[in-house]
Amino acid sequence: MFLAWKEIKYNKLRYTLITGVLVLVSYLVFFLSGLANGLEQLNREAVDKWNADGIILTEESDINLPRSNMNIDDFNGKGVEAYAALGQLNAIASVGERQSNVSIFGIKEDKLIMPDVTEGESFSEKGEVIADDTLQEEGFQIGDELEISSSDTVLTIVGFTDNARFNAAPVLYTNMDTLQQVRFGEAADNNEGVVNGFVVRGDNLADVSVDDELQVVETSTFIENLPGYTAQNLTLTFMIYFLFIISAVILAIFLYVLTIQKVSMFGVMKAQGIPGKYLAKSVVAQTFQLAVAGVAIGFLLTILTGFFLPAAVPVAFDYLTMLLYGLVLIAVSVLGAFISVRTIVKIDPLKAIGG
Amino acid sequence: MPALEMHEVNKVFGTGHTMVEALDKTNFTADSGELIVVVGPSGSGKSTFLTIAGGLQTPSYGEVMINGHNITQMKEKKRSHVRLHEIGFILQASNLVPFLTVDEQMTLLDKVKTNNLSEDELQDLYQSLGIEPLRDKYPSELSGGERQRVAIAKGLYSDPSILLADEPTASLDTDRAFEVMKMLNDLTKKRNKTTIVVTHDTRLLDYCDKVYAITDGEIQLQQREHGNS
């Protein structure tokens, strides 16, 4: 560490620039991880809130909730600890000029997917809904009467709940009758009992027996099959992993060029008997110091940026993931230093001193 | 036991018609307390002699003994250990690390080797070399003469038994060159070291105990009219 730190102190500008590059790379990695996490939550937080182990959908739905249609009598809870029927409809809700995409969930009040009300009260009458609080941030209020696209039914917000977005749309929770009214209008009575799926809790989902037309899907599989979810995650994860490689390559190039410039100095030191191992360790220690500084500053900058981001930016920082990515960044940077280590080990002190 | 011995050392570069014999059947002995100057023109084999003596390269034939240990057959790691513990180098190109102060140059050696000079001994060495006020200076803040004196201090700090100097006065004017040679001579006697200076500068001969001349790889002890001044 001695040589490493002394050199950094002496060549402040040079090493500040290298650290600066690492700060920018780690900032981008942390920000992208926050974005990936935020977008994930945007899609899945209502599903996470169910705290369920699986969902029963029709075979032909291709694990897509809106395309799954069955009767409420198709499953009686056999083989699971708890279950709840779920009806779902995507729509546009509007009050005057204010509009928003929404996902309407039809549920039974006494069932496991009933959300906690954070403001206002729960729905009790037909036409009442509990809304996700992101709608509140958009300006919707308790008492607002929502016009729903392709329906004559008007829904009234009676309360708000938190963390309730499904496939990037805020959820409106209501009872089954209201959902059927919105979905089928005057034909609601003819479609009584139509639901999209059953949310289930149980340890052995594989043993749950359902009709041939139905399938039991694990929650994780259901989430992965949400439209766009996996493609979006893979893209962002690919970018993050690529940034790891970029970071390693950038630092490796910088250190290699610096090492080449110092071949003569290292050669003289080796001629004096200073072991190549000590010099190699010094380069690795130097990389470690620069990487830790770069990643730490990048981390702080990311957190700081988080405070100033508008609510519309779907960033949610998961500190554990960020810590893991930070450690990976440091590790790949140190890995990049090993190219220089190889160079140092191979320096012939005789050639370096011009013998 | 001599500090440094060479027996029938021969160094050959290349093969066939491109073969060059840089050192030819060299026999050489240096004892403690001796300052020996090896003179010769460029390309005469001086550097080859010094680098073989210092274990930086191995001879094609023959043996090199450092304090009774044959370093010829040693692996590089072990020779590196011998260089660190037994040999101090003062190189033509400054052997100072540019980003370390004078004091830190010595601290670096403390990191890789114990039994270096004590703080009091280092203080004495600084004073005898006149570099005490320069302890916190970086090499770039020193003049050529000061850098050379710091390089000598660095060469001596690990308390080696043998000091090998390659053109230590190359970058110095005449007065400074004499000053450095006088210093090397004093330190050799006072600390009972073996100092071998390789140079083409014949002005320096007055300060040494023995002079060897090297021509086309052949080294010969020179008879002198008067000794060390």
C-alpha Rg of chain B (nearest Å): 17 Å
Cα(first) to Cα(last) distance of chain A is: 30 Å
- In CATH terms, the superfamily of chain B is P-loop containing nucleotide triphosphate hydrolases
Q: Which radius of gyration of chain A do the C-alpha atoms yield?
A: 29 Å
Major sheet of chain A: size, sense and barrel closure?
Answer: 6 strands, mixed, barrel
What's the total number of strands of chain A? 13
Instruction: Give the CA-based shape of chain A.
Output: elongated
Tell me the distance between the termini of chain B. Answer: 26 Å
Oligomer: heterodimer
Number of helices of chain A: 10
Structural class of chain A: alpha+beta
GO cellular component, one term (chain A): plasma membrane
Membrane topology (chain A): Multi-pass membrane protein
Domain ABC3 transporter permease C-terminal (chain A): 238-349
Family (chain A): Belongs to the ABC-4 integral membrane protein family. HrtB subfamily.
Describe the model.
The complex is a heterodimer of chains A (355) and B (229). With 355 residues, chain A is of the alpha+beta class. Chain A folds into 2 domains: 2-43 and 230-352, no CATH class; 54-202, no CATH class. Helix content of chain A is 49%, strand content 20%. Chain A contains 10 helices and 13 strands. Chain A has helices at 2-10, 12-50, 133-137, 176-184, 219-224, 229-261, 263-271, 276-308, 319-346, 349-352, and strands at 54-58, 70-71, 82-95, 98-107, 119-120, 128-132, 145-148, 154-161, 165-166, 169-175, 194-195, 197-201, 214-218. In chain A, the strands form 2 sheets. A 6-stranded mixed beta barrel of chain A has the order 3-4-10-6-8-7. In chain A, strands 2-11 form a two-stranded antiparallel sheet. In chain A, α6 (229-261) packs parallel to α9. The radius of gyration of chain A is 29 Å and the shape is elongated. By secondary structure, chain B is α/β, with parallel strands linked by helices. Chain B has one domain: P-loop containing nucleotide triphosphate hydrolases (Rossmann fold, 3-Layer(aba) Sandwich). Helices cover 31% and strands 26% of the residues of chain B. Chain B has helices at 46-53, 76-86, 102-112, 119-129, 144-157, 174-190, and strands spanning 4-13, 20-30, 35-39, 61-66, 69-70, 87-90, 162-166, 194-199, 210-215, 218-221. In chain B, the strands form 2 sheets. In chain B, strands 6-7-8-3-9-10 form a 6-stranded mixed β-sheet, sandwiched between helices. In chain B, strands 2-1-4-5 form a 4-stranded antiparallel β-sheet, with helices on one face. In chain B, α4 (119-129) runs antiparallel to α5 and α5 (144-157) packs parallel to α6 (174-190). The A-B interface holds A 2-3, 6-7, 9-11, 264-265, 268-276, 278, 349-350, 353-355 and B 47-48, 50-51, 54, 56-57, 77, 80-85, 87-89, 91-93, 95, 97-100, 104, 107-109, 111-113, 138, 154, 158, 166. Chain A: Part of the ABC transporter complex hrt involved in hemin import. Responsible for the translocation of the substrate across the membrane. Chain A: Residues 238-349 form the ABC3 transporter permease C-terminal domain. Chain A: The chain crosses the membrane at residues 15-36, 238-260, 290-313, 319-341. Chain A: It comes from Lentibacillus salicampi. Chain A: One of its GO terms (cellular component) is plasma membrane. Chain B: The complex is composed of two ATP-binding proteins (HrtA), two transmembrane proteins (HrtB) and a solute-binding protein.
